[in-house]
């Protein structure tokens, strides 16, 4: 919140008379907020608060700064806002502590041989196996009780690709072999040291590469698919202990030059589009990934410019008739995003337009960038963030006002230039305990879908009232060949609805949004696998994905014994009968 305060001109020296007036104003605003804490639906005090935000934002944030530091007893069993330390006890939990399970055993293989031994042992004992990563999925994808949980953290090496084993046409790409447990944070730095970079990234870099691929994680840019679209080959340990190198039918490897082994372990080359397009978004249901060959690119920088607009203005450039094939406002940028206040203030939805263009090489850094979440929390520090949650719980009406003020700190006149991964990353916001629901629609339907979403959120405010704790992040992504990728078969617009863990109505609001926004047909809005908060059903999946039957056909081959069944497969209704 420090940058919000600085942006609003807080902490200025004033003459004595001005100081007296300032004290009176401060006390008046504080009294308004105290009355709202007592009765959050007091319309008279709400109007006073709105006027204060519009005319005296610096004083309002002085008051809020003090309020969020007032100790408030946490609710019973309320989790800390800082992500938990993994493996601190026998149980496993995800990064925000919202998913938890009790495994039979935790394993950390350091090589392919050990990984095969783990799976073979599980087969002999009839034990289920599940790979876990950084726990960034907010759904039950990794949740598996009484199983061997495989943490790939030690599988984090990068190796050169054997060019002699590739088809001639595959040698034009820059390829690198990475083990499945490497995090994007480590990978981006290792690549940078080699003068290389990931082709694209999302905003969170603590995920393992296997986790990003398995769930359809994406960045922004209508020319770029989900991160799994950069994979050219995956080495997978299956339920029998057999190891496959899986590629497209006309994959990068020349079968006649394939060695048939990795570090002394027999490997079968499987070049099959059905398998590859299934495995690319597998949700970990078909085996344990050991490594990937991925396409990368020479290191590059990004030039980012952020400007203020409104939804009513910007949507004129995104209407369905302009998708022929792509609206100029998106086509003219390598990466285009919007940060949108979901709530209407003074007859407009405040919006920040984010335009990014690629620059060859590592151009010297210029300027700096502020994230809305960082702006909101910087002043109070990560350890004090639960106070903000308590504050928003007590006065939910202030959420739209705070969002409006916070996202306006994102706007700056001069461009920000930096290495690609520094611009893509959310920075310190990665360390905050937040979760999200992410919706995906056909890009051509961007405007009607967002209009509907804003209406759904508006309706709930009048009915409940329930509020989001942050803005909506809007990005555009290329179509994917992955059968169950959220971007499967269509250019996609994603809408990420951010929630602070602990804000009481967050999950209920997300469920309401999902139910109102999603239909039972292939044109429906879809939900990101790692950000579905366990709301997606088997009926949804069958309706949304035209190639679900093709995905399931491969799944039944690779999980024939039910070794990879878990809470997620139970929820979707695809768990296989367990072998004795």
UniProtKB/TrEMBL annotation:
Pfam families: ALO, FAD_binding_4. GO terms for cellular component: membrane. Its EC number is 1.1.3.37. It comes from the Eukaryota. Pathway: Cofactor biosynthesis; D-erythroascorbate biosynthesis; dehydro-D-arabinono-1,4-lactone from D-arabinose: step 2/2. Keywords: Oxidoreductase. GO terms for molecular function: D-arabinono-1,4-lactone oxidase activity; FAD binding. Residues 99-299 form the FAD-binding PCMH-type domain. Residues 1-25 are annotated as: Disordered. InterPro entries: ALO_C, FAD-bd_PCMH, FAD-bd_PCMH-like_sf, FAD-bd_PCMH_sub1, FAD-bd_PCMH_sub2, FAD_lactone_oxidase-like, Oxid_FAD_bind_N. This is D-arabinono-1,4-lactone oxidase. It comes from Lomentospora prolificans.
